[in-house]
Amino acid sequence: MKINLHAHTTRCGHATGTEKEYIEEAIRIGMTDFGFSDHTPMPFPDGYSSRGMRMDLDQMDDYTDTILSLRKEYRDKINIYLGLEVEFYPQLFSKLMKFLEGYPVEYLILGQHCLNNQYDGVWCGEETNDPSRVRQYVDQALEGLSSGRFLYLAHPDLINFKGDDAFYQKEMSRICEYAYDHKVPLEINLLGVGEKRNYPNPLFWEIAGKTGNDVVMALDAHHVRMIDVPETEKKAMELVDRFGLKLIETPLPKTK
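Above: the chain sequence. Below: its structure as tokens.
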């Protein structure tokens, strides 16, 4: 991999290492482009905290300043981008977009970790046999993508459904078909590969292969040790080969 746009910082509460360490490791292994897309702060209602999952609103200034400073420091060695990983929460999305207008954020990736608005929903990684959760996951992801604000869809197979395979495939086909029609890449998530999570889900990627979706790889790095992962990349490539996936180079955002 020469390009990675999915990496986190300690501000989210579940990552380690400094941004400088990430960049120096990326340079060491020959990467040309590296983007930070930490879990976005959210304008939650008063009294609700998502600390431990994402940065707070008042950390956005420091996040921005740190990434832009690194870009200047390493401008002759690697291209660095400022991004965010964002959920589409219907009650909060417009408020979030308004908040982000004050920052030079260059790209957003959609990572739908929870249903509803988080504070009134459920975690998508929780095992479930409930078909309504799959349908809502797909509906919510598609509504987010339809905003036109996202570079690609991260771990599109995050929903941890243990029910009927035929139902899962029917619903997930809606994501693949929309992404194909609107040229939205789908991400094979190397964190999921390396930690043997419920994703990547072969059932999903079989659909993506048949649909002909553009597919990208991303590290989803939460630790410096997750940047140089040749064995994990090899396993991801086995998935690409197995389903004849159309692997493309990750599209680059325009710098501000």
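The first strand starts at residue 3 and ends at 4.
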